[in-house]
Amino acid sequence: MITPRPGSTPLAQAVVNRDLALVEKLLAVGAPPDSADERGQSALTLATATDQYRMANLLVAHGANIWFADRLGFTPAIFAQYSRLRPDSEEGRALRQFISLLQKAGYPWPPATPPEVKALREAGRWPPVR
Asked: What is the Cα 2 distance to its own chain's centre?
């Protein structure tokens, strides 16, 4: 088992450590899929910000909040939109699957930019689908 950074959770630390097997184990024993790190970033945001889309799909399958937006308005979707993964790579295929999951859940595509998300949140209109 890993020791998370102060203020972080074991799940978030496993994502940061790129340890898919440990993420699977933690989710299997009931770790909340929206666990956060010491900065308040969700495990899903950490996975997408670091191009770990197999992990992102696993987190979504366990109920991670696809609508999470950090204080600056960054969302998992915005990281997916601007990912530079090779489409033919394993993670590139997982990225396409992740985008498909978002769209099936009603996520607007292309996703809102961080400033747009902040404005929508301040207007009480984020997330746009409830």
From this structure: 21
pLDDT at 5 > cutoff 70: no
Give pTM, 2 decimals.
Answer: 0.93
- The terminus-to-terminus CA distance of the chain in angstroms comes to 36
Question: Spelled out in words, what is the top-level CATH class assigned to the domain 10-122?
Answer: mainly alpha
Cβ–Cβ under 8 Å, residues 25 and 47? no
In the structure encoding, which two tokens stand for residue 5, read together? 């950074």
Give the percent of the chain with pLDDT over 90: 92
Q: What share of the chain is helix, strand, coil (3-state, %, to 5)?
A: 50, 0, 50
Domain spans of the chain, in order of start: 10-122
